[in-house]
Amino acid sequence: MTINAYAAMAAGKALEPYQYDPGELAADEVEIAVDHCGICHSDLSMIDNEWGMSEYPLVGGHEVIGRIEKVGRDVNNLEVGQTVGLGWHSGYCGHCPSCDDGDQNLCASAQGTIIAHHGGFADKVRAQSKSVIPLPKGLDAKAAGPLFCGGITVFNPLVQFDIKPTDKVAVIGIGGLGHLALQFLNAWGCEVTAFSSSDSKAKEAKELGAHHIINSRSEQALEEAAGQFDFIISTVNVKLDWNAYINTLKPKGRLHFVGATLEPLDLSVFGLLMGQRSVSASPVGSPGTIAKMLDFAAQHNIAPQIETFKFDDINSALDHVREGKARYRVVLTR
Fold first, then answer.
1. How far apart are CA 223 and CA 25, in angstroms?
2. So what's the pLDDT on residue 176?
3. Would you call 26 exposed, middle or buried from its count of C-beta atoms within 10 A (0-12, 13-18, 19+)?
4. Do residues 98 and 107 lie in contact, with contact meaning Cβ atoms separated by under 8 Å?
């Protein structure tokens, strides 16, 4: 059998048509016919080897929506014909303490969908069945792919840190992650503030669920927000004045990172110590939390704002994301 894909042959190179033989389907795997696949900034990071762990040829794509075409002999949770999604992980060890506790996303041996594994920039992709989640009724399959990475990345902290409907929560960055965070938090019942450096996004941020907007370029606005927030979620990958944001937290408030900023955090311990504040971070969620997120999104009509490209235009789509032009997620579709 041959899978037809698009692969980067070296760091930073344009993707090329690529074929590979996946071998025999493992007993615990499924094969998915790919209908749609989102493009995440993490795909660019892997294509460009920004994290130093890319292997080539590299087939990206970890926001996959498609139909089950084959199931391994031991698979009993999925059936041929089901519409499903696949995110950042395509497998777990199944026996470590994290897996036993339902935190498979923290499994040290988890198989990344695009790390030493070929992803969804292809006509088919394979994954362990336990990492594949059926799509609930009410979600548009074309737009659902980004929920499997961007969506779960911002939804997971709401579950992990017991965010309450009465909490005042702020989001730093209104982009691919931030525009989903605003929607989830508003539906969660929180009083939502958007920190944004773009005046043009203020109206959009309110339409997405923000009750308030703070100009993050204004030192005065940050100072006036002192002690306001129970929780701040940062979705950006750039260095900011993190001490200024910590100052906007209430006592026992938390600054939480989901954006993969590569620069070290410059933090004053006193800003944390005197208010008993915390700094934390989290990756994507477990299969159970992904399923919960999908149900929540369907119930509250939450969806990514997407732009679509044909798979044949994949390099144009990647450039669109690379140049920061996406509003707010790009999806490849057949």
1. 57
2. 95
3. middle
4. yes
H helix count then E strand count, the chain = 11, 17
| Total residue length of the chain | 334
Radius of gyration for the chain, computed over Cα atoms and rounded to the nearest angstrom: 20
DSSP per-residue letters across 128-152: EGGGEEEPPTTS-HHHHGGGGTHHH
How far is residue 235's CA from residue 67's CA, in Å, rounded to a whole number? 31
> In which residue are the tokens 């499903």 written?
84
Two tokens at 168?
């005042």
**Residue percentage of the chain with pLDDT more than 70:** 100
Integer Cα distance of 4 and 263 in angstroms: 37
Q: Over the stretch 160-213, which tens digit does the pLDDT of each residue have?
A: 999 999 999 999 999 999 999 999 999 999 999 999 888 888 889 999 999 999
The helix-helix angle for 287-300 and 178-188 (nearest 10°) equals: 70
